[in-house]
Amino acid sequence: MVAPLAVTMGEPAGIGGDIALAAWSRAREAGLPPFLVIDDADRLAALAQRVAIGVPLARVDGPEAALGVFASALPVLHRPLPRRVESGRPDAANAGAVIASIEEAVALARAGRVAAIVTNPIHKKTLYDSGFAYPGHTEFLAALAGGVRVAMMLACDALRVVPVTVHVALRQAIAILDTERVVACGRLAAASLARDFGVAQPRLAVAGLNPHAGEDGAMGDEDARIVAPAVAALRAAGIAAKGPLAPDTMFHAAARATYDAALCMYHDQALIPLKTLDFEGGVNYTLGLPFVRTSPDHGTAFDVAGTGRARPQSLMAALRLAADIAARRG
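User: That's the sequence. What structure does it adopt?
Assistant: Structure tokens below.
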């Protein structure tokens, strides 16, 4: 790797700092790729002292200096916060710094100065209260990339899932679901499996929306009217897609062996099986961006922030996946 990864600040009152420090402390034994954090160095130093893990920090002027210091200290692009952080208590006064950290990471990635970005969890309501206009990370990153079409993939060793609708109420998810949306997500998933995961002939399993995939119309017509035409369109485009499948029989071990990613119709249909299989090792990966972005597959965990109890496994998995995809693209 010729450039480090960039880890964003995330919500400073959450566990982003905790897990970044913990990941660096395990970097050598775990074989993690070099990374830097875009964060308030004074905050991280105080946090390291509080949780008693003794991580040394090195302020760097740019990513180019990070590789030289990573073996002995966690490189930090120091970006001071306007308000003192109290773990577990988010403050909208710091929202601007959280957003700026994401923007800077994207600019560095697009300039080739970092190999990929890994975003620490944000607290959406705090950002909304400050005027943030996007539903979440994914939509903001798409806008920063010029308005490209994106989708969210959640991945662990046992399963990859792509939800067609994401952070909306279930009633709204059903209302906005259409064939074009399913096809677009399927195309993004197949392209990314080939490009970023090295799957020569990607196989997609497409979940039905309703129980038993509608039971031939007895439990709703959406599967016949929306999902089946999408599967046919994906096949016509040369993608090995099958479905709509009964969602309750898609995720046992024998079924998972028959596909490379599952296309799911709404958030929980995708995330419940993945988090059940590997709660700590799941990674959020954004399909469709011109740069590589991963994230831990968990939230801010205010209840354990600043206590030393936050577990860094998902961040570590996100770092590994980001480095692997960046290397494959490179």
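The mean pLDDT is 95.
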